[in-house]
Automatic annotation (TrEMBL):
UniProt lineage: Eukaryota, Metazoa, Chordata, Craniata, Vertebrata
Family: Belongs to the AP endonuclease 2 family.
GO biological process: base-excision repair
PANTHER family from the UniProt entry: APURINIC-APYRIMIDINIC ENDONUCLEASE (PTHR21445:SF0), ENDONUCLEASE IV ENDODEOXYRIBONUCLEASE IV (PTHR21445)
Protein name as it appears in the record: Si:ch211-141o9.10
Keywords of this entry: DNA damage, DNA repair, Hydrolase, Metal-binding, Zinc
An MF annotation (GO) of this entry: DNA-(apurinic or apyrimidinic site) endonuclease activity
Family annotation (NCBIfam families): nfo
Length: 230
């Protein structure tokens, strides 16, 4: 049972990607249990393109738990399904990904969350330029279909044909998103190993550096997120 702990205002909010096993509100309890001030979570199974509708009672429980423990929605960042490839050259995969993005943003709204983070996509046998155009197209479509949730693009390691290994690629996508108030970037500090720099006065350090300084991080969590929005 998670203790009833209210988060005090801080300059930095640090947390982990927590499980939703047993119910989406369990993510809040898990974050409290490990002393998180922020958290990331999946909004459903990573194995299925179609998911059961979000249970209204579960959504209410999630919002109540957030309020009880003092988690502001701005410090909660859902992570998109790994199945999604909004830049896929395959029409069926693109279409399913586009629909899933709309579904994910709708779930965020129902949970009272204001941001949604996802891996931009991969060009496979297409070109990076075409891939980036498709990603922006999927984002624009999702913005039209859903209320004000902000789509947050995560930077990537640049493996294979993935987009987002270069900040210029994220910039290209953002340039083609019509509503600039609804797009941002999540910097994955685990893979951004070559960068140590300041953004908005936040010193971005890699995972190991945080742990060495005694900040509580976890062996199985690959990502330590520090959030910012352009
Ligand atoms: Zn990620």
């Amino acid at each position: 049972m998670a203790q009833k702990r209210k988060i005090k205002p801080k300059k930095k909010y640090i947390g982990a990607h927590v499980s939703i096993s047993g119910g989406i509100w369990k993510a809040v309890e898990s974050s409290v249990a490990i002393g998180g001030h922020a958290f990331a979570l999946f909004l459903g199974s990573q194995r299925c393109w179609t998911r059961p509708a979000l249970d209204t009672a579960a959504a209410v429980k999630f919002q109540e738990a957030c309020a009880q423990h003092g988690f502001d929605p701005i410090h909660i960042l859902p992570h998109g399904s790994y199945l999604m490839n909004c830049g896929s050259p395959k029409e069926d995969v693109f279409s399913k990904s586009q629909n899933m993005l709309v579904d994910e943003l709708s779930r965020c709204s129902a949970l009272g969350l204001s941001q949604f983070n996802f891996h931009p996509g991969a060009s496979i046998d297409s070109t990076p330029e075409k891939c980036m155009e498709k990603i922006a197209q999927a984002i624009n479509h999702a913005h039209q279909q859903t209320p004000a949730v902000i789509t947050v693009l995560e930077n990537m390691s640049g493996q294979g044909s993935t987009i987002g290994g270069q900040f210029s690629e994220l910039r290209s996508i953002i340039d083609s998103v019509r509503d600039k108030t609804r797009v941002g970037v999540c910097l994955d500090t685990y893979i951004t190993t070559n960068y140590l720099f300041y953004i908005n006065n936040v010193y971005i350090r890699k995972h190991d550096a945080l742990r060495a300084r005694g900040v509580k991080t976890f062996e199985h969590d690959e990502d330590v997120y520090i959030f910012f929005i352009f």
